[in-house]
Design goal:
Shape: globular
Distance between the termini: 14 Å
Number of strands: 11
Order of helices and strands: EEEHHEHEHHEEHEHEHEEHHH
Number of helices: 11
CATH topology of one domain: Rossmann fold
Bound molecules: S-adenosylmethionine
Helix content: 25-40%
Radius of gyration: 19 Å
Structural class: alpha/beta
Length: 302
């Protein structure tokens, strides 16, 4: 919940190293030099995909339907997609899946396949990830999947124009301080337009700025257990039904300046510009300083 300070900007043309690292459950993740962050919780990359994304959206239940539409925002190594497809195939092999993944850096899904990071999944799932990384599309009798490369702020526009409506959205950008461009109220509004009326959007983040953005676009939200993280994640949907209530601490966090959302009205500003705009808005905000909230709820952090 506390936000790390960050000043550096990162390029949207990516060239930094992607370094391999084992996580505590034995699965591997990468470190991105461009974003200065790990792709997964180091408590377990596969565990995170299953717990934070598949379990939190109750995919086992949703997969009982005839068809399921999934949007994987920030496809990365494809772990969330793989965990979802494996779950659907296991609980209802006849479910017809339509999946779209959005990803900026085509090197990442390729490296996941080439380095054998996806080898623990069944051969069928590995084949799907390999074809998505290589050709960007899989068309089988019960699966139509696409991996759309580019800045998600732009690629999401095409989905909106196509009237894409997801039952489930996995929302997994790097953290808000490191990748503010994907946590703005403006981008989240476009993503929310792709969420069907009964759909569920899940993310590992509980940042007040992120939750405020979800609320701002009209979504209801509740906390979920986020695997390997100290804080809960967030489940967002159009209907409040079935959501766990926010704890008092979480509610009060939303009354502080931490809840000033990131903004990017043109959907093309740099990370630095977006961070700077938020700092200015926070300085002028009538919301209470977050230090008061921190003193009350996280006394050891002051
Ligand atoms: C935390 S990782 C996602 C991990 C992934 N869900 C997985 O299971 O492996 C964040 C991903 O967001 C991608 N990303 C960063 N900026 C982006 C942008 N503007 N548009 C689309 N994807 C972006 C990064 O390349 C990275 O793969």
């Amino acid at each position: 919940m506390p936000e790390p300070a960050l000043t550096s900007d990162h390029p949207l043309s990516l060239s930094g190293a992607l370094t391999l690292e084992a996580t505590a459950d034995g699965s591997f993740t990468l470190f991105s030099e461009d974003f200065g962050e790990w792709f997964h919780s180091r408590a377990g990359a596969y565990t995170e995909a299953y717990t934070t994304y598949v379990e939190a959206t109750d995919l086992t239940q949703l997969a009982q339907a005839e068809s399921l539409t999934l949007l994987d925002v920030c496809y990365g190594l494809g772990y969330n997609t793989a965990a979802a497809l494996a779950t659907v195939r296991q609980v209802n092999p006849r479910c017809n899946v339509h999946l779209v993944g959005l990803e900026l850096d085509g090197r990442v899904p390729k490296q996941a396949v080439e380095s054998g990071l996806v080898a623990p999944w069944w051969p069928e799932i590995q084949g799907i990830l390999a074809q998505l990384a290589d050709q960007g599309q899989v068309n089988q009798s019960l699966l139509y999947a696409e991996l759309r490369l580019g800045d998600a702020r732009q690629t999401v526009q095409a989905l909106v124009d196509e009237g894409f409506q997801a039952d489930v959205i996995f929302f997994d950008p790097f953290s808000p301080p490191h990748c503010p461009e994907l946590w703005t109220v403006d981008f989240i509004r476009q993503v929310a337009r792709c969420l069907g009326p009964q759909g569920k959007l899940v993310t590992y983040s509980c940042a007040a700025a992120v939750r405020a953005a979800f609320l701002d676009v009209g979504l209801h939200l509740g906390p979920i257990a986020a695997a390997g993280r100290r804080w809960p994640g967030t489940l967002a949907q159009w209907s409040p039904a079935g959501l766990n209530p926010l704890a008092r601490q979480e509610q009060e966090h939303l009354q502080t300046r931490a809840a000033v959302p990131y903004r990017d009205p043109s959907l093309q500003d740099s990370a630095d510009t977006i961070r700077h705009r938020r700092q200015q808005e926070q300085a002028q905000s009538s919301l209470v300083p977050t230090s008061q909230w921190r003193k009350r709820w996280l006394p050891s952090k002051g």
